[in-house]
Amino acid sequence: MLTVTTVNVNGLRAAAKKGFVEWLAGTGADVVCLQEVRAEPGQLPEEVREPAGWHTVHAPAEAKGRAGVSVYTRRAPDRVQVGFGSSEFDGSGRYMEVDLPGVTVASLYLPSGEVGTERQDEKERFMGEFLPYLKELRERAAAGGREVLVCGDWNIAHREADLKNWKANRKNAGFLPEERAWLTRVLDAGEGGYVDVVRELTPDVDGPYSWWSYRGKAFDNDSGWRIDYQMATAGLAARAVKALVERAERYDLRWSDHAPVTVAYGAGRWASRARTMEG
Questions:
Q1: What CDD domains does UniProt report for this protein, alphabetically (predicted)?
Q2: 3-state SS string over the chain?
């Protein structure tokens, strides 16, 4: 088994004080992908920067206090790559991949965007560069007999079932027609060639949501968005056996405005002992 978790921590130093450390100590995951770390490695407490039993790689953004991705693995990666060959985005703390036996796992923090602003232009430029890379990565992996798993906060709800109040958000970043069409291209077998693993395992449900605003009673009412994905190549997706959004039991127990999204994959060429998922 290979169990992978992805979560936007909304500031790792803050999350560490609210329960992330305890969550990490109790998780059965083999790989944990983090987004929006918002810290240099030297700013993180030791139990977060290099926790016992984990190998960690951190890719902070050049802009202090923004973005940042990390990957925690039970075994040492065979290769680490920060960025995807973009002169604009490789220093932005938005993408990192690691090689494990038979699989490349990536942590992605796609820009959130805001309609009518430079932030949306940035998001569109990122998407324009990233899709060709995803296709190249899949093809390169296939030539080597490997699979790919791109985890993270994609900041796009793909379908109406992926956010509670979809009608009110049709003109907002994260649910724009062009953003959704781009994500369709990522999932198109003839183009990106990736599979939305959680949706494949839960085809007929609303959600399961992974982000809820801190405003109002969004969390209590489960008025959320599903924007945290595990996108896998077809061979790996076919091995997915269980998905779980680790939603906190109560509002005051949240250590991020996102919840961890965990998927267990069946037997493959991964040098890790079998683990089980709870819940």
A1: Nape_like_AP-endo
A2: CEEEEEEECCCHHHHHHHCHHHHHHHCCCCEEEEECCCCCHHHCCHHHHCCCCCEEEEECCCCCCCCCEEEEECCCCCEEEECCCCCCCCCCCCEEEEEECCEEEEEEECCCCCCCCHHHHHHHHHHHHHHHHHHHHHHHHHHCCCEEEEEEECCCCCCHHHECCCHHHCCCCCCCHHHHHHHHHHHCCCCCCEEEHHHHHCCCCCCCCCECCCCCCCCCCCCCECCEEEEEEHHHHCCEEEEEECCCCCHHHCCCCECCEEEEECCCCCCCCCCCCCC
